[in-house]
Amino acid sequence: MKILVVGGGGREHAIIKKLKQSPKVTEIFAAPGNGGIAQDAVCVDIKATDIQGITEFAQKEKMDFVVVAPDDPLVLGMVDVLAEKGIPAFGPRKGAAQIEGSKVFSKNLMKKYGIPTADYAVFEDAKTAMEYIQNRGEYPVVIKADGLALGKGVLICETEQQAKDGLKSMMEDKIFGQSGTTVVVEEFLTGPEVSVLSFTDGKTIKPMISSMDHKRALDEDEGLNTGGMGTVAPNPYYTPEVAQQCMDSIFLPTIRAMEQEGCPFTGCLYFGLMLTPKGPKVIEYNCRFGDPETQVVLPLLQSDLMDIMQATTNGTLEQTEVVFSKENAACVILASGGYPQKYQTGKVIFGLAEGQLADGSALVYHAGTKQTENGLETAGGRVLGITAVAPSLQQAVEKAYQAADRISFEGLHRRSDIGKRALAAHKQ
Ligand code: AMP
Ligand code: GLY
After folding, report:
1. pLDDT of residue 175
2. CB 251 within 8 A of CB 210
3. CA 202, CA 264: separation in Å to the nearest integer?
4. Does the CB atom of residue 150 touch ligand 1 within 6 A?
5. d(Cα 252, Cα 257) in Å, to the nearest integer?
């Protein structure tokens, strides 16, 4: 099979490396890919959001299957357009991608179908939102932009002043553009967070191994929210009992609800969960694989990813094997200094040969890299994800850091405590 993967980050690199292991897959293309993906796939210079460009390329090159990995082309309806041209694609249709594309849609869905989530209210003007927050008088309070905001559309406000400033920046200054025209004001929840990615064909849902993201830029969960600075899998808080509770009260009800609403979800549905004292609740849904969750989840997948992806589009997931290894994985992100704010690019990366570690002791997933005449250079905020797999979490974390120590570039920033909280939970 000839496969096109849309996107160009660490998540896409992890998907491509796993697809390469499938005996069915003969050729992989990536649009746009990156400097490291180029070692594993043919990169074509088409933007991930260019629906027409991607569709024309897929038709011209006679792709057998397209994997649409990022949120924005999914929300824009790329899978629908590909399907119209008879090209099967992994990922939800536009209607189903709303589960991530609109917080109002997802919150209303959960309310209607009794799926546990934080209490909330929706507002279209800042004044009414502020009155509601003042009357409620409980802090912290959470304010979320309705639309996609590059993972930055969530504000946790500790004081009334912060809430005022937050509403102003979203609704009046429009720092997230049209995404902030409508906002959701939400109750603040507490408890350990768990990411669960799942495969679904709209009727059957098969969760992948659980994982834990580290979203803040600095150690001890300090600093700004980022796309994710590292991950571990499995997540020790996600016990078999919690998993069963989530299946019964969240996963199956969500799939049924989407079917009932006339927009069955196919592809990878990501559940961002919080294990609150009152049970697991949904913090957010994503309509795609997480980044960098994918970089720890897929290395542990033992079944054929191509078979599973096809099953989600053919409606045959029930009969398809989805098996994970019993090992542990840890991923440490190497970022450009300054990320998630201003950072420099074009720094030469040392320590890699053809994009990988010479001894293969860890997997190197490229996120923001570019091949130039000087060799491999940085080209984004998150640059590389270093993943190690081992029988224990402790070993996986150590192995990932040992490998990460051998890679350098000017201004490199990474967290030094990926997996620390998970290891402490193991000891409890
Ligand atoms: P998101 O961009 O939706 O992933 O949210 C970013 C982070 O904000 C989440 O990972 C949580 O840590 C936090 N968060 C979002 N909603 C809530 C909430 N209702 N209560 C507490 N924390 C939240
Ligand atoms: N790592 C969080 C996300 O992919 O949204």
Report:
1. 81
2. no
3. 5
4. no
5. 8
Task: Go through the chain and tell me how many residues it has.
Answer: 428
Crossing angle of helices 94-101 and 103-112, rounded to 10° = 100
> Going by C-beta distance under 8 Å and a sequence separation of 6 or more, which residues neighbour residue 362?
386, 387, 388, 399, 400, 402, 403, 404
| Tokens 């040969």 found at | 353
What's the per-residue H, E or C state across 123-191?
Answer: ECCHHHHHHHHHHHCCCCEEEEECCCCCCCCEEEECCHHHHHHHHHHHHHCCCCHHHHCCEEEEECCCC
Q: How many whole angstroms separate alpha carbon 400 and alpha carbon 47?
A: 31
Q: Are strands 2-7 and 120-123 parallel, antiparallel or unpaired?
A: unpaired
Is the overall model pTM greater than 0.85, yes or no? yes
Ligand 2 shell residues, CB under 6 Å = 151, 213, 227-228, 286, 290-291, 293
CA distance 280 to 300: 24
What digits encode the pLDDT tens for the residues 259-309? 999 999 999 999 999 999 999 999 999 999 999 999 999 999 999 999 999
Q: How far is the CA of 374 from the centre of ligand 2 (A)?
A: 32
CA 142 to ligand 1 center in whole angstroms: 8
pLDDT band at 151 (very low <50, low <70, confident <90, very high): low
Mean pLDDT on 159-178:
88
Residue 268: which of 2, 15, 4, 3 has the closest Cα? Answer: 15
Three-state secondary structure call for residue 59: helix
- Calpha distance 186→209 (Å, rounded): 28
Torsion angle of alpha carbons 21, 22, 27, 30, nearest 10°? -70
Phi, psi of 195 (to 5 degrees): -105, 130
Residue labelled with tokens 């491999």? 376
Ligand with minimal distance to 284 CA: 1
φ/ψ of 109, rounded to 5, equals -60, -45
Residue 271: what residue type? Answer: F
Confidence of residue 214 (pLDDT cuts 50, 70, 90): very high
Residue 32 phi/psi, 5-degree rounding, is -90, -10
Q: CA end-to-end span of the chain, whole Å?
A: 47
Nearest to 228 by CA among 293, 146, 144: 293
Cis-peptide into 23, omega within 30 deg: no
